[in-house]
Write a structure and sequence with these properties.
heterodimer; A: Alpha-Beta Plaits; two-stranded antiparallel sheet; B: 20 helices; 19 strands; globular; binds iron/sulfur cluster
Chain lengths: ~250, ~625
C-alpha cells in the first residue's frame, strides 16, 4: 500500500463542484487512467481518497489536497502527468509527493489559511480610507461580533481572536474594486470563513447590529459608506502553528 | 475558458449552481472558424433530468462529430434562478460557450413528455425568441423538435418551425447539412425551411391547413395548395438504415453534479417485440433491431476509458428479450470486473435465467426487485396483451424470496380500457398472494419483515396504439379506483399512486389537435412552467385556459373516438398501420393475445421498412 499526496488548484467553473461531488470526480479520473486505487472493505466499498477540509462552494483555491491510496508503488511524476491530462477543466494538480509510512492527515498541522479576496467598496469612500479603518479596528483589539454557524447552530460570537490579519497587501483592481489578503483561523478546531470575517468587520465599521441585516436597521443608525460587497475569495495556502506555509 | 454568463452572486444564491456552468468532462468546445452552423440541443426540463437521457446525449455527440457544426446544450433554469434572471434582464443561455441562445442558428428541442410543453414556450420566451413560429424573422434561430412525444405534432405545431419524425441519427446530420448549405448560400428563413422540408421525415406545420367540422371536431390536415409540391400528405418516420452500424458514441459528457441517471447507458436494442397494447414506445420504435455483443462491448470499452463511470446499464424496453444476453453479460464482465465497474440490468423479466445473471453481476442488492404485471387479473392482462401470468410471477417471487430477497415492488396501471372493480381487487389479491408466499417460505423462522409495494400509475391513452380511440377516465373516477385498491389492500403492503390531475392533462394534450396549442400558450401566460413537477402543477389554471379557448379537456381525453374518425396524427406514418391498430383493438375487446414478433409476425405494417426482426418473417 502506497499513499500519494497531491496539491491541486480548484478554479474557473470547477469552483461550483461541491466537495461531495469531488470524490466522484477523482474516482472516475482514477478509472480513466487505470489507477490501482485501494478500496474500502464492506458493503459499499469506496476508493481510498481523502481530501483536505471542504472548500466552500464558489471559492477558488491554490491549496487543495488529496491523498490517494494505491495498491502498488508508482512513479509520482508520471502519476501527476496522468492526472493533469485526465481531470476535468478547472481542477489542476500542482505537485505530488509520496507519503512516509505513518504520516498523518494533511489537515493535522493546519492552523491558519491565507486568502486573497476581492471586494467592491462603497461609492463615497476611497480604498485607502477603507483599509485604514480596517487596520485601526483590528489594532484596537476590540471584539468583532458576528453571527457564525457552528455544529450547534448559529450564534453571535467574537471572531477577533480568529483573525490574524485582514486587508493587507491591498491593490486597486479597477474603480472601487480592491483586492487584498487575509489570514484566518483554519483547521479542524477553529475555522473562520472569509465571508464571515468580511461581514463581521464591515458590520463593525458601519455600526450594523450583527444580528440584523442592513435592510432591518433604522435609517441613520449605520454608516452606509462602509457597506461593501465581497466579490471573490481564493484560498492561497494553509499555514501551520508557526504560520509557515504547508507543502 | 469562457466567462460564465451569470454573475457568481446570482449562481451562489440558487440551488445547485452546477446545473448552469457547463465545462464538464467531454463537453465540446469549438473555436470560431471551426464551424459554420452553431446550434443547441435543448431540453425542456432542468439539467439533472436532461443529462439523464441517453438520446439527448447521443445526439449531442453525434452533431459535434459533424465537421463544421458546433452543438451546445440548453436546459430550463429551475424557477429559483429563472426569477432572478428575469429580474436582472438575463436571457436563456448555452452551457458551453455561455452565450445567449437566441444568437444561435438552430435550437433543437427533444420532446420527451407532454407536461414539459409549457417549459418549451417559457424557454423560448426567456431566450428572447418569439414563441410562435409565425412571429420569428431573419434574426431568430430556427426552432425545431424531435423525440417520442413529437409524434403527435399538433399540440405544439405553432411553436416549432419544423419537426423531425423518427430516429435522429441520420436525419439530423442531413438537416444540419442542408441548413449549412442554405446559410453559406445566403438563403433567407423561408427558403431555408423549404429546403429542409425536402429531407425525408421532416414536417413543417406552417405548410399545412387544419379544418374542423361544424361540431368543432377535427376534420382534416392537408398540405396548403401552395406547398403541395414540397409538403407530403403523410410524413413517414425515418429509421436508421443499419442499426448495427448506426452511431454509437465513444465518449459521453460526465456531469460534475449528481443527475438522475449517472452512468454509461448501452442501448442493446431498439424497439420491443411484445406489443403491449397500452405502450406507445412498443409501437413507435418498431421494428426490433439488435446490436451484436461485439459492437456493444467495443463501445462499452471506449466509453469506460473516456468517462471513468462506475456503472454500465443496459438500455432497452425489455432487457430479457435481447437474444444474446448471457453472452453480452459475460463479455462485459471481462472488462468491467478489473475496473470495479458494475453492470445494471434494468427491466429484466424475472425467470431462473435472470436470477442467474443477477447473481453473476450482483447487480441487484438484495433489496429491490420489480415486477410489472400491469393489471390485476388474467382477463385484463390478456386485453392489454401483457404476457405475464400469475404462476410466472409467483414462481419468480418464490425464487427471489428463497434467495434472500425481501423487497418486491409490483407495478400496475389503473383506468385501463374494459377495467372493472374486479380487476382492481385483483391487484390487491395478487399482492396478498405474494405476501402469503413470503410468509409460507419463512414460516416458523425468524425472517426480515417483507417489504411489498404496489405502485399504481394511471393509464393515459396514446396515439399510435390500439387504445388511441379509447376514453380516459376522469379525475373523480381515478380517485375512486385508487380507493378501491387501497380499501382491499392489506396494511402490510405499501401503496403508491400517481397524481390523477397530471394524468388527465397528459391525456388531453397527447391526443390533442392544433387548438391545444392555444391552451398551452394561455396556461403558460398565466404562469405555468415545470408542470411535470407536481409541486408546480396548477390544474385549475389549465382548466381556465381550456375554458378561455372555448375547449373542453373532456373532448380530448374522455371522448371515445369513432374508428372512422379523422385523427389529428393521421398525417404521421410511424410504419404501424391504422388497420393493424384497429385489429389489435378488436382482439383486445375479445381478450385475444397477440404473439410477440419473435414468435410470429402479425403484419403490423412496419415490415415495409424491411429492417430488423421483420426481415425473413412470414407476414400475414
Ligand atoms: S411487421 Fe411483424 S415482425 Fe415486424 S414489427 Fe410488425 S409484427 Fe413485428
Amino acid at each position: 500500500m502506497e499513499k500519494y499526496r497531491i496539491r491541486f488548484c480548484k478554479e474557473g467553473r470547477a469552483k461550483y463542484i461541491s466537495h461531495l461531488d469531488l470524490l466522484k470526480v477523482f474516482t472516475r479520473c482514477g478509472r480513466r487512467i487505470d489507477l490501482d486505487l485501494e478500496y474500502s472493505q464492506g458493503f459499499n466499498p469506496h476508493a481510498e481518497i481523502v481530501f483536505s477540509a471542504p472548500l466552500p462552494l464558489g471559492m477558488t483555491s491554490e491549496a487543495e489536497y488529496v491523498d490517494l491510496q494505491l495498491a502498488h508503488e508508482t512513479d509520482p511524476d508520471k502519476l501527476l502527468e496522468l492526472l493533469k491530462r485526465s481531470l476535468p477543466s478547472g481542477i489542476v494538480p500542482l505537485k505530488i509527493r509520496k507519503l512516509e509510512p505513518g504520516e498523518g492527515s494533511v489537515m493535522k498541522p493546519v492552523r491558519f489559511a491565507r486568502y486573497r479576496l476581492e471586494a467592491r467598496t462603497g461609492e463615497n469612500i476611497t480604498p485607502e480610507i477603507f483599509f485604514d479603518s480596517v487596520k485601526r479596528c483590528l489594532d484596537s483589539n476590540e471584539p468583532v461580533m458576528t453571527a457564525k454557524k457552528s455544529k450547534s447552530g448559529t450564534k453571535v460570537v467574537d471572531i477577533r481572536p480568529m483573525i490574524v490579519s485582514f486587508g493587507t497587501d491591498f491593490k486597486v483592481v479597477e474603480g472601487n474594486n480592491v483586492s487584498f489578503e487575509a489570514v484566518l483561523a483554519a483547521g479542524n478546531e477553529v475555522n473562520l470563513r472569509p465571508e464571515v470575517a468580511f461581514k463581521g468587520i464591515v458590520d463593525k465599521l458601519s455600526g450594523t447590529d450583527p444580528s440584523k441585516t442592513p435592510e432591518d436597521a433604522a435609517p441613520g443608525e449605520t454608516d452606509d459608506s462602509f457597506l461593501c460587497e465581497l466579490l471573490t475569495a481564493r484560498k492561497m495556502e494553509f499555514l501551520d502553528f508557526e504560520q509557515k506555509p504547508l507543502w | 475558458m469562457s466567462e460564465l454568463y451569470l454573475p457568481d452572486s446570482m449562481l451562489l444564491s440558487v440551488e445547485k449552481p452546477g446545473r448552469y456552468i457547463g465545462g464538464e468532462l467531454n463537453s465540446v468546445i469549438k473555436a470560431d472558424g471551426q464551424y459554420d452552423v452553431h446550434m443547441a440541443m435543448c431540453f425542456a426540463d432542468v439539467y439533472d433530468i436532461g443529462m439523464s437521457h441517453l438520446g439527448f446525449k447521443l445526439l449531442y455527440h453525434l452533431l459535434n462529430d459533424q465537421e463544421r457544426v458546433w452543438c451546445e446544450r440548453v436546459f430550463a433554469p429551475w424557477p429559483d434562478l429563472e426569477d432572478k434572471m428575469r429580474a436582472g434582464g438575463y436571457r436563456l443561455f448555452t452551457l458551453e460557450s455561455q452565450c445567449e441562445a437566441r444568437t444561435l442558428d438552430m435550437l433543437s428541442f427533444s420532446l420527451q413528455y407532454e407536461m414539459s410543453y409549457t417549459n418549451v414556450i417559457n424557454m423560448l420566451d426567456l431566450a428572447g425568441v418569439p414563441v410562435k413560429s409565425k412571429d420569428r424573422d431573419e434574426s431568430d434561430p430556427i426552432v425545431f423538435c424531435g423525440g417520442p412525444s413529437a409524434n403527435n405534432t399538433e399540440p405544439m405545431a405553432e411553436f416549432f418551425d419544423f419537426y423531425n419524425l423518427g430516429e435522429g441519427e441520420e436525419m439530423l446530420p442531413e438537416i444540419v447539412e442542408v441548413y449549412r448549405q442554405c446559410k453559406l448560400a445566403g438563403k433567407n428563413r423561408s427558403e431555408t425551411l423549404k429546403e429542409i422540408a425536402h429531407v425525408s421525415g421532416v414536417y413543417v406545420p406552417a405548410f399545412y391547413d387544419c379544418t374542423f367540422d361544424e361540431s368543432g371536431m377535427f376534420a382534416s390536415l392537408e398540405p396548403k395548395p401552395e406547398y403541395a409540391d414540397i409538403a407530403p400528405k403523410r410524413i413517414r418516420k425515418r429509421l436508421v438504415s443499419d442499426f448495427e452500424r448506426s452511431y454509437l458514441p465513444e465518449t459521453m459528457i460526465v456531469p460534475n453534479i449528481e443527475v438522475v441517471h449517472d452512468r454509461i447507458m448501452l442501448e442493446i436494442f431498439r424497439g420491443c417485440t411484445r406489443g403491449c397494447r397500452f405502450c406507445q414506445a412498443g409501437f413507435i420504435y418498431r421494428p426490433v433491431r439488435e446490436r451484436t455483443p461485439e459492437t456493444l462491448v467495443k463501445a462499452a470499452k471506449k466509453l469506460l476509458d473516456s468517462t471513468g463511470y462506475e456503472e454500465i446499464s443496459m438500455l432497452s424496453l425489455s432487457t430479457s428479450d435481447y437474444s444474446r444476453l448471457g453472452e453480452l453479460t459475460d463479455d462485459l464482465l471481462e472488462i468491467t470486473v478489473p475496473k470495479r465497474v458494475s453492470i445494471a440490468l434494468p427491466s429484466l423479466r424475472l425467470d431462473s435465467f435472470s436470477f442467474e445473471l443477477m447473481e453473476k453481476v450482483s447487480a441487484v442488492r438484495k433489496s429491490g426487485l420489480t415486477f410489472a404485471p400491469e393489471a390485476g387479473t388474467q382477463r385484463l392482462r390478456d386485453i392489454i396483451n401483457k404476457g405475464v401470468n400469475e404462476e410466472d410471477l409467483l414462481r419468480s417471487c418464490r425464487t427471489a424470496f428463497e434467495g434472500g430477497w425481501s423487497t418486491v415492488k409490483l407495478y400496475f396501471m389503473l383506468g385501463l380500457p374494459f377495467e372493472t372493480d374486479e380487476d382492481l381487487i385483483g391487484i390487491a389479491e395478487l399482492a396478498h398472494k405474494v405476501l402469503a408466499l413470503y410468509d409460507e417460505i419463512h414460516a416458523g423462522r425468524k425472517a426480515r419483515r417483507p417489504n411489498i409495494t404496489v405502485s399504481v400509475s394511471t393509464f393515459v391513452p396514446k396515439p399510435f396504439t390500439p387504445f388511441q380511440w379509447a376514453p380516459q377516465i376522469p379525475v373523480p373516477e381515478i380517485i375512486r379506483r385508487q380507493n378501491v385498491i387501497k380499501e382491499h389492500l392489506s396494511r402490510r403492503v405499501s401503496f403508491s399512486w400517481h397524481d390523477p390531475e397530471t394524468s388527465v392533462l397528459e391525456g388531453a394534450i397527447s391526443r390533442g389537435d392544433r387548438r391545444i396549442g392555444d391552451v398551452i400558450y394561455d396556461v403558460w401566460k398565466a404562469g405555468a412552467r415545470f408542470d411535470a413537477w407536481q409541486e408546480f402543477l396548477d390544474y385549475g389554471r389549465w382548466m381556465e385556459a381550456f375554458a378561455k379557448n372555448g375547449l373542453h379537456a373532456e373532448d380530448f381525453n374522455r371522448r371515445e373516438r369513432g374508428l372512422d374518425e379523422a385523427l389529428p396524427w393521421d398525417h404521421v406514418d410511424v410504419g404501424v398501420t391504422k388497420a393493424f391498430l384497429k385489429r389489435e383493438l378488436g382482439r383486445a375487446q375479445q381478450g385475444i393475445v397477440t404473439p410477440n414478433c419473435a414468435e410470429k409476425c402479425s403484419g403490423c405494417g412496419v415490415q415495409s421498412y424491411g429492417r430488423g426482426i421483420c426481415v425473413g418473417k412470414i407476414q400475414n
